[in-house]
Amino acid sequence: MDRETRRQLDEYRRTEAGPVENNLIDELLAGELDRREFFRRASIFGLSASAIGGALAALGDAPLAFAAPVAHKAGGRLRLAIIPPPVKSLDPETYLDQGGLETGGVAGEFLTRATQSLTLLPELALSWKPNADASSWTFKLRPNVKFQNGGTMSADDVVATYNRLLGPNSAALSAFKGVLSASGVQKIDSLTVQFNLDTPTASFPYLTSSTTYQGIILPANYADGTFQTTPQTTGAFKLDSYTPGVGAKYDRFTGWWGGSAPLDGVDVTYYTDDAATTAALLGGSIDLIGQIQFATGRPLFGNPNVQIFAARGATHREVPMRVDLHNPLHDYRVRQAIALTLDRPAIIKTLFDNRADIGNDSPFAPVYPSTNKSVPQRKKNIALAKQLMKEAGYAHGFSITLTTEQTGEIPQLAQIIQRSVKAIGINMKLVILTSTAYFAGTQSGGPGGLGNTPWLNTPMNITDWGHRAVPNVILNSALETGGVWNAAHYANKKYDALVKSYEAAIALKDQQKYSGQIETILLHDTPVIFPYFYNYLAAGSTHVKGYQADALGEIYLSKTSLA
Amino acid sequence: MGRFLLKRLGLALITLVLLSMIVFSLAQLLPGNVGRNILGPFASQQQVDQTNHELGVDRPIVVQYGRWVSHLLHGNLGNSLEYQGSSVAGLLGPSLVNSLKLAALAFLICVPLSILGGIAAALRQGRVTDRSITIGGLSLTAVPEFVTAIVLIVIFGVVFKLLPTTAQAPPGSSFLVQIKYLLLPALALTAVLFGYIARIARAGVIEALDADYTRTAYLKGLDTRTVMFRHVLRNALLPTIAVVATQTGYLIGGLVVIEKLFNYPGIGQRIYIAAQNKDFTMLESGVLVIGIVYLVATLVADTLYSLLNPRIRYGAAE
After folding, report:
1. Which of A77, A169, A485 is the best substitution to test chain B (most B C-beta atoms within 10 A)?
2. Is the pLDDT of residue A313 over 70?
3. Å from B61 to nearest chain A CA?
4. Quick one: which of A417, A21, A15 has its CA closest to A202?
5. CATH assignment of B88-317?
6. What does A156-188 look like in DSSP terms, one character per residue?
7. For the segment A40-76, what is each residue's pLDDT rounded down to a tens digit?
8. A534 DSSP 8-state letter
């Protein structure tokens, strides 16, 4: 490193960098982070490109080289299939479904955007910076961002958007509950917003990214119900028309801060049937499908006219077992025994042709850097399972009902579990509902505190969960005492405390220390089986260029073109 | 004739009122809470109750029914509960038009083809033509429509790429382009209905050919052509008309599977999704609309029937 670079880096560390940034650079210099991981973490903590370059130069690395932009062929309209169509309205704070988040996401933008490699890119925020314990984050907004209905984005719009996201009816509470409250969002100046968190959260910038898909920035005067009637997002495309259940039409937004998107527009057709979508792509009626399933889209794989876009992620299924009922699942040994009957490598081979990672019964997917991989992987072990059943007093087994939904490969997984537990004498009855019936009912109040909806109240079930860039949402909502989606009704004070420590931990090795302890507790208690984390898959014709699948299903087309 | 039609119309209206009552009560039986469905899982019970109150769904069922009917009579179908901010009429209208287009094309292809097939089979009774038409038609009818549809999609849409696999033409397409898009689903429907209609037509023709009046007509010295058109077909096609009319309801409201496979936004899919998502206002109006279409079709069939067969109109007028 030349003297000038060292001087700049020292200057940065002395003046600009806070303890969080200095800790990160120390980790890099001490060899605890590799270059790729340093990039990822630098993006979370909002280090500038010059600071990143300086730190890498301190290690003797070459200066940052940015890939030359790929030349795109301009023009054309992309025909996009979204399956299934959005349910309910298009107001972003209400998104809970794939169709809604995909439809909104074509037009909308977030403060930050999570990439496939789990780094964060600046989007409507240019930079962000934590205080010493990551309990307060300051975001500098991008200047001169135009809304599609004419206004210029300022801190007021961001504060108003976040107040909506933190309101009582917002679906984004699944991400923000316990982390951020409406009173914590403050305007500092016209282009600076400060988030004062309820609890220190080192990964907070992820929650402002596209992975909190409700977080589309809207004008301060946005009125519910107007998303589909007035284009008012900031993205490269504006939603020009929307017919519920039929389709949507987007045109290029000429005032986009990012310049001009290659495509003239996007025509969305909603589908309800996988076979129809597959036929439409093979027959040339559409160019891109937002999401495909391996189980139902087999003709697309290996077809020379089709490209498959895969994103490794943390999309998964959870098999919660209620710990609070008077049935055998009450005993942790029984829950362990059930988990031990599963032949996970065979399951991912059957269901995904190995396009998936094996789960170890905790939300820590292999894709997360903070996952502690030294915790042993749970493997099929029928002898141990039988012994555990015997110790628990169920040597001769018992009967139990597993309730689940007709979604993707879930019914097949249910059958696999049913067959697997037969080996330890458990007679499992399957109840497979439509998704609507499975998620119907209330999710709060009632004797268990989680209403009466089947997915949160049946003794044992299987539920589909989307990808998150960090496991926090699942650690909190699905497993913490009193969590809003705690289907196992699990309560463990030691676990709760460890999650708080994990979320506040800034150094990666501290995160891994806590994640290792969390993983060990969850393996012991086994409130939820996490059998696998599968790749998010999309498919397109070979004409589609510059598209990348997003692990959560966001469809980001501002750099996409048609050859 | 006028009295006959008036009587049929009166019966149709009574049926409609009964239908509206049944539809309304059935919709109430669907599980789920309207307010909870609209506001989502995070809303408090108080907010849910408030929404239910605003929508009036917490009142006695008789009051709700009365309100619904009075709105209906004023031409107000209300707003969709699922797609907030969209009116039911605005969503059902285009779906109904789509369904009518598909049904019309399917009718135009299927009805003449099956009647001709039935006549040909009857005239060559017991021979190869007859056997191939009856057995072929029966086999096609026995194959579920989603199988026929997928085979058609794979052959014409994917392998040879002759016809689009989706039924919905791009907005603003010309008449001919729209027909091109609708051809595959219409063919799938033809496959389903051909065997059934052809069989009825065949049976009618065979019966009429055997009838005394046909023998008399021949003995009278009339040529085959005149006998066929003036005596045989006029009597033979009566049951066929009744059968065709009863298929109208299916063709317009019951095509959920075909609409799904060809991703066609018809009224069948609308109602199916409404039933799944507890969109009561959409469901009730949608079923009622199909009921009306069905009744109109039956009425038209009855009229045709009575025109062709004087016995019916005189018998009914007593």
Report:
1. A169
2. yes
3. 21
4. A21
5. 1.10.3720.10
6. HHHHHHHHHHTSTT-TTHHHHTTT--GGGEEEE
7. 788 778 777 667 767 766 666 544 444 444 556 788 9
8. E
- 3-class SS of residue A285: coil
Q: Which two tokens stand for residue B238?
A: 């009566």
How far, in Å, CA of A141 to CA of A162, rounded?
14
Q: Which residues on A lie below 8 Å from B153 (Cβ)? A: 279, 283
Q: Is pLDDT of B314 > 70?
A: no
Q: Is the pLDDT of residue B316 over 80?
A: no
Q: In A, which residues are within 8 Å of B85 by CB distance?
A: 89, 225, 228-229
Most B CBs within 10 A among A87, A88, A166, hence the mutation to make, goes to A88
Cβ-based neighbours of B39, under 8 Å, separated by 6 or more: A169, B47, B48, B51
Above 60 in pLDDT, residue B317? no
CB-based contact B84 A444, cutoff 8 Å: no
Strand order in the sheet with A192-196: A125-130, A136-141, A192-196, A185-189
A449 touches chain B (CB under 8 A): no
A residues 451-470 near B, CB within 8 Å? 451, 453
How big is the CA angle at A442 (ends A441 and A443), to the nearest 5 degrees? 125
Alpha carbon of A274: minimum distance to chain B alpha carbons (Å): 9
- Lowest-confidence region among A34-38, A210-214, A415-419: A34-38
pLDDT at B50: 86
Report which of A60, A83, A472, A91 is spatially closest to residue A291, judged by C-alpha positions.
Answer: A83
Q: How many Å apart are CA A337 and CA A332, to the nearest integer?
A: 8
The DSSP result for A427-477, as a single string, is EEEEEEE-HHHHT-S-SSBSTTSBTT-HHHHSSBEEEEE---SSTHHHHHH
Tell me whether B94 touches chain A (CB under 8 Å): yes
pLDDT digits (tens, 9 = 90+) for B124-159: 999 999 999 999 999 999 998 889 999 999 999 989
Both tokens of B74, joined, read 């004023």
Q: Mutating which of A285, A306, A453 best tests the B interface, going by the most B Cβ atoms within 10 A?
A: A285
CA distance A172 to chain B (A): 10
* Dihedral (Cα; A111, A114, A118, A119), 10-degree rounding: -50
pLDDT tens digit string along B3-57? 878 888 898 889 888 988 888 888 777 766 777 777 766 677 788 888 888 888 8
Higher pLDDT, residue B285 or B34 = B285
pLDDT for A62 equals 47
CA distance B297 to B295: 5
Nearest residue on chain A to B88, alpha-carbon basis: A244
Question: What type of residue is A404?
Answer: T
Confidence tier at A242 by pLDDT (50, 70, 90): very high
Q: Which residues of A touch B286 (CB under 8 A)?
A: none
The alpha-helical segments, DSSP class H, found in chain B are 2-29, 34-39, 45-55, 61-73, 88-123, 128-142, 145-152, 175-210, 212-219, 224-226, 233-236, 238-253, 256-261, 267-276, 280-308, 310-316
Any A CB within 8 A of B36 CB: yes
pLDDT at B41: 64
Please state the ipTM of this predicted complex.
Answer: 0.81
* Residue B318: pLDDT band with limits 50, 70, 90: very low
3-state secondary structure of A193: strand
* Residue A191 contacts residue A154 (beta carbons within 8 Å): yes
Quick: pLDDT tens for A314-343.
999 999 999 999 999 999 999 999 999 999
Three-state SS at A424:
coil
Residue contact A171–B42, C-beta within 8 A: yes
- In angstroms, how far is the first alpha carbon of chain B from the final one? 11
